[in-house]
Write a structure and sequence with these properties.
mainly alpha, 0% strand, disordered N terminus, disordered C terminus, nucleus, chromosome partition
């Protein structure tokens, strides 16, 4: 017997101050420190405690005779655990068999029950009869803990699968049936229940999770079963009390004294049983629940909260008070969503009953804020249940939730998670639409004055106040499950839109009408498609037969109703973009057969007329697209109305095409005319930049604008910027014009950059040409000649723009003739068209090369150009050669690095194609070697001038050769070692001192084994080392610039400055040996080289060519002609040379692009750059060739206006 002196008083809630919430301690003591502490499992006076188990009774019974469901347990047959796990027999019969065994030998039956709990925990051990008779519960638990194997971590209640899920159900049923079957006798024998409760209490305090979990579940289910017993006893006591009172109130003659005594005795027995049950429940609650509701395992905490909710619901008189509610309130703050979910479930069970909900006012006021905040819980399931709980709270009382509390739930109807949104929609519907006043009882069923009409207005008001107007479909979907009848009342919606308000009724505003049209469209879509809107739900679900019938009925009603009303609605709101766009989407949900079966053809004609008027009045894209969609929906060949709709559509399209052709012709004429005037006249005061930019932006967005329009718009915008620049440069502009020009120029450059990805070649070429022009004009050289005030306009292209420009050149210029698809009229085989295409490509390449020459883009981008020299010499050799010459004048060292980079790129391409084993006899390798030889010739004869550049070239080449190890492992040559054979072509350009220095630098990368190798694969290293050996050549004297075997116009013009030979000072010769190794330690981040002289600023006004050539020529002045008075000094490799500012820059005296096979005839050509005529490949038709535009790419015309048709700086 569980005996505690005051345990029964725990249930006498009216007598204990603790049962009432007299202070805040009950709801603010999560650890249960204020709970009463009874003696728990201690025995009552005169009774044995469970720890002191009776040793009599069945002590002399031999083991092995106990049966459960007819099965022996300890003689190798099935145990109670196995019987429950298999579930072959009904739980009732299993319990009955156990009860029979208990009556026969209670110790042995109880031992089976104890082992049942032990085995349910997953423990392999078993309690023997000896242990049961002589050991305390704590000792038994300790022994079982020692035998428990926790390595696996799994036990029956954590195992997955249907078998174990069923076992959990059978386990709970077994405990409930056991108590129910024993409630009249056995549970009061002061032995069975005491032993079980004592065991479960001890197991629930174990460190082993499996013991703790299993015993807690068993104890909580045992407690729930005892609550049912206590409830039955309470009911019986009330009935007995009523019978006693009725019998006692009888007159003395009719009163049966023996009956009174029997009723009195029965009530006394029931009271004693009630006290016994309360003691048991109190022991379980204080011994198990109070400790385990805050267990470290979330599942154990969830079990406790779920069961206490059952107790409060079943036996509210005993448990529905703040002493027990506080545990639920505290646990709502649990970190695990599973536990919080059980708390909400427990509270929902209480609020479902209005009677119980009324007794929760104090609890609700204390924990309401927490429940409201849980609507935003990170666990979606918890948020859904929190909203449902608030809906139940709202039903129990309207006064508990404030307006702020409700608003926090309202906005959840727009949630992307549909269960949350639907729950919030139910809350909203209950709050706003469920309460009807007496004045609303007599209203009509449908129409503007109906109850639904008022509710629809309320929906519109809520929709507008939520400030999430673009989510009307979400609102309708949220309300659909609970308010579909209201949302399907399209008759009332049409009446609100078309009918005039009666006297005293406030009409809908334009904004409210727009919202109503949107809600109406969303309701139609929801009814016809029967699935949530996009973004809410995983896709279409399979509809049941009932849902399909409802869908067809709704679609028929929609067609019959809106076939008549839609033309009227379009006529009323014809000029309103938002309303018309939504209304035009309704016909796609029609059942078009209704037009024929319902004889509604005249309404179809009215609809087609209204669509015609709509498209005629509107230019908005959304309206026109909606009109197009409507025609597409109505033009269905399966229906008889197709011919009628097709005729109307054809008439509309004919009219639109005629308008389009007329307007396009006029537009092209106007754009062409404006472009022509922009070329020679300043039209900037009309501010046409915005219009042209908008036109270009529209072309990008749509992608289908004719190329003539785009090209003309680009040209016009280009001229606008140039005229604006002319004004700013002259100082005649207003304040702030420079900022405007800077913004416009950058925006236009970005626009042209985007057009580089156009699919139209003509548009791409125009964008590229204009970009090159603008980048050159707005480069840093625009500040020269005293124009420092233009510095804010300087624009430097970023890396992405440089990369796109280079990719354009590689894709559009360096192509084979057969790949060119730009020939006119498709005559690709015509020679004249090929020459024209080549001329165009040459101009594109020239435009990009000017960016390199004037240092607008990085010099190293020229590597991709230079490497194409051999392959495309006939087409672009002169342009690449001139670019190389000008680049060297800018920065010798950087030019040399670019040359070796181009060779490295070709070498890498060869490795990608041919593999790692380089065959130096292949045509690809020989071609790279021949290119390096030609590059070497471009450095001229004056080795002192190019000393530093050649040295840096060798340094980069050596590093590249040894950069990648051999993929074949140690002992094999580096992957790029063959590059040294290519690099040896530049060895002749090294002076003796530098050859020794380069050789020393080479030895840094070599090992002793490499020096001893003589295999063929090491020949590049051997030949390169030999080329660095100081041999018979006498390089002690450097060749002085200014004297060559061939004359040069450039040298002639500077004859006055370079007429006499200049010898190197002795200091320079002495410094050569001392500076041999300086270049090896030279920093890579050098100062910016001296740029070429920028051209003069000119306007775009048409001028006399001869006068412009004399006065405003854009030709860079050769810097050799500039006056100077400084003397030659010793070469210092620790500083950057002055580039073209040196007087004695050498002329290029040899044909640097000579073919070894004598394919060219210009071996002795005169390098007079100012008079050089760049000829095109021979043409079969000389007349056609003479008609082509001249090709301007030589030093005298590098910035000529005719190249880009504009004047530049």
């Amino acid at each position: 017997m569980i005996a505690a002196q005051d345990l029964h008083t725990e249930f006498q809630f009216a007598q204990e101050a603790e049962s009432q919430l007299s202070s805040d301690t009950d709801l603010e003591d999560p650890d249960g420190k204020n709970a009463k502490t009874g003696k728990g499992m201690a025995a009552k006076k005169g009774k044995k405690a469970p720890g002191d188990k009776a040793k009599g009774g069945g002590a002399g019974r031999a083991p092995g005779l106990g049966r459960v469901n007819g099965h022996y347990q300890e003689n190798g047959m099935e145990t109670l655990f196995e019987v429950v796990k298999m579930g072959k027999s009904a739980t009732q019969s299993v319990v009955d068999d156990w009860i029979e065994a208990y009556k026969h030998d209670r110790d042995h039956a109880l031992l089976d029950l104890i082992n049942f709990f032990i085995q349910c925990s997953g423990c392999k051990g078993a309690v023997s009869g000896e242990m049961f008779r002589h050991m305390q519960n704590s000792e038994i638990i300790r022994k079982m803990t020692e035998e428990f194997d926790e390595d696996g971590g799994d036990y029956p209640f954590t195992m997955a699968g249907p078998q174990w899920k069923k076992f959990r159900i059978n386990f709970c049923d077994f405990i409930a049936v056991l108590v129910r079957q024993c409630q009249y006798s056995i549970i009061y024998d002061e032995y069975m229940m005491d032993t079980v409760i004592s065991l479960l209490t001890g197991l629930s305090d174990s460190q082993v999770r499996a013991f703790r979990h299993t015993s807690t579940l068993a104890a909580m289910k045992l407690m729930t079963a005892l609550v049912n017993v206590a409830l039955n006893l309470s009911i019986n006591m009330d009935n007995t009390q009523r019978q006693y009172e009725a019998e006692r109130n009888k007159v003395l003659a009719k009163r049966a004294n023996d009956r009174l005594e029997n009723l009195l005795q029965k009530r006394k027995e029931l009271q004693e049983n009630q006290d016994e049950i309360e003691n048991m429940m109190n022991a379980i609650f204080k011994g198990v629940f109070v400790h385990r509701y805050r267990d470290a395992i979330a599942e154990i905490r969830a079990i406790c909260i779920e069961e206490i909710g059952m107790w409060m619901k079943l036996y509210s008189d005993a448990f529905l008070n703040d002493s027990y509610l506080k545990y639920v309130g505290w646990t709502m703050h649990d970190k695990q969503g599973e536990v919080r979910l059980k708390c909400l479930g427990a509270l929902q069970g209480l609020f479902h009953s209005r009677e119980l909900g009324a007794r929760l006012e104090l609890f609700t006021s204390r924990f309401k804020d927490r429940i409201v905040s849980m609507t935003l819980d990170k666990e979606y399931d918890v948020a859904v249940q929190a909203i449902k709980l608030l809906t139940l709270v709202l039903q129990s009382s309207d006064e508990i939730l404030t307006a702020e509390d409700c608003e926090s739930v309202y906005h959840l109807v727009y949630s992307a998670h549909r269960p949350i949104a639907v729950s919030a929609g139910e809350f909203l519907f209950k709050k706003l639409f469920s309460h009807r006043g007496p004045e609303e009882e007599g209203l009509p069923r449908r129409g503007r004055q109906s109850l639904n009409g008022s509710l629809i207005k309320t929906t519109v008001f809520f929709y507008l106040e939520s400030e999430l107007h673009e989510h009307g479909a979400y609102l309708v979907d949220s309300l659909w499950d609970c308010g579909s009848e209201l949302l399907k009342d399209w008759e009332s919606m049409i009446s609100l839109l078309l009918d005039e308000p009666v006297s005293g009724e406030e009409a809908l505003t334009d904004r409210q009408e727009t919202a109503l049209v949107e809600i109406m469209l969303c309701a139609i879509r929801q009814a016809c498609e029967c699935h949530p809107p996009v973004g809410r739900g995983t896709g279409k679900r399979v509809l049941s037969a009932k849902e399909k019938k409802t869908q067809l009925d709704d679609r028929t009603r929609i067609t019959e109703m809106f076939a008549v009303a839609l033309p009227l609605l379009l006529a009323k709101y014809c000029v309103d973009i938002d309303k018309v766009t939504n209304l035009l989407q309704i016909p796609k949900y029609f059942d078009l057969d209704i037009y024929t079966t319902g004889r509604l053809e005249k309404h179809l004609d009215a609809l087609l007329r209204q669509i015609w008027e709509v498209q005629d009045k509107h230019t908005d894209t959304e309206v026109l697209e909606a009109s197009s969609t409507t025609y597409h929906s109505l033009c269905n060949e399966e229906f008889t109305i197709f011919n009628r709709v097709d005729i109307a559509r054809s008439q509309l399209l004919d009219e639109l095409v005629d308008k389009f052709n007329t307007l396009l012709e006029d537009f092209l004429q106007e754009v062409g005319a404006s472009g022509c005037f922009f070329d020679a006249h300043d039209l900037s005061k009309w501010d046409l930049f915005t219009s042209n930019y908008k036109l270009l932006n529209t072309g990008l967005q749509n992608g289908d604008m004719p190329e003539q329009i785009v090209i003309h718009a680009m040209q016009c915008t280009h001229y606008i910027i140039l005229w604006h620049l002319a004004k700013v440069s002259d100082g005649s502009s207003l304040k702030g014009d420079m900022v405007t020009l800077r913004k416009q120029m950058r925006a236009f450059c970005l626009m042209c950059q985007r057009y580089l990805n156009s699919i139209n070649n003509a548009v791409k070429e125009q964008a590229f040409t204009i970009l090159c022009d603008l980048l050159l004009i707005f480069s840093h050289q625009m500040m020269s000649s005293g124009r420092e005030q233009l510095e804010p306009l300087v624009y430097t292209p970023d890396s992405s723009l440089q990369a796109e420009l280079l990719n354009f050149i590689l894709d559009q210029v360096f192509i084979d003739q057969d790949e060119d698809n730009n020939s006119t009229d498709g005559q690709q085989d015509d020679e004249a068209s090929k020459i024209e295409a080549l001329h165009k490509r040459r101009n594109l390449l020239a435009a990009y090369c000017k960016l390199i020459i004037y240092n607008v883009v990085e010099i190293n981008t020229g590597a991709d150009i230079f490497k194409q020299y051999m392959r495309y010499y006939n087409d672009y050799g002169d342009i690449i050669k001139e670019t190389l010459s000008k680049t060297r004048q800018i920065d010798k060292v950087q030019c040399a690095k670019t040359l070796v980079l181009s060779l490295q790129m070709l070498f890498n391409d060869m490795l990608s194609e041919l593999g790692f084993n380089v065959d130096r006899s292949t045509s690809a390798f020989c071609g790279i070697k021949e290119l390096s030889r030609r590059f070497s010739l471009t450095f001229g004869l004056d080795q002192m001038k190019t000393r530093e550049a050649i040295a840096m070239l060798h340094k980069d080449g050596i590093e590249f050769a040894f950069k990648e190890p051999s993929p074949q492992g140690q002992g094999s040559p580096p992957l790029n070692l063959a590059f040294l054979d290519i690099l040896s072509e530049f060895s002749s350009k090294l002076i003796h001192q530098d050859k020794r220095t380069v050789h020393k630098y080479l030895e840094r990368f070599m090992t002793v084994q490499m020096a001893l190798q003589r295999d063929d694969c090491w020949l590049p290293l051997i030949s390169y080392r030999n080329s660095l050996q100081v041999g018979g050549d006498d390089d002690t004297m450097s060749v002085i610039s200014g004297i060559s075997s061939r004359g040069s116009t450039r040298s002639k013009k500077s004859k006055s400055a370079t007429a006499s030979k200049r010898k190197l000072p002795e200091a320079e010769e002495n410094s050569c040996s001392s500076s041999d190794a300086v270049w090896m330690n030279r920093e890579q981040n050098m100062q910016t080289p001296v740029m070429m002289h920028s051209p003069h600023l000119t306007s775009t006004v048409l001028r006399d060519p001869k006068k412009m050539r004399q006065e405003d020529s854009c030709t860079p002045v050769p810097l050799q002609q500039q006056p100077h008075h400084h003397h030659q000094t010793a070469i210092d490799y620790n500083r950057r040379g002055s580039g073209l500012m040196e007087d004695d820059e050498e002329p290029i005296v040899e044909d640097v692009m000579m073919s070894s096979e004598d394919r060219l005839e210009d071996i002795n050509e005169d390098m007079n750059f100012e008079t050089m005529d760049i000829d095109l490949p021979a043409s079969k038709n000389r007349r056609e060739r003479s008609e082509l535009k001249p090709d301007y790419f030589d030093p005298s015309s590098i910035m000529d206006d005719s190249v880009l048709n504009v004047s530049m700086f």
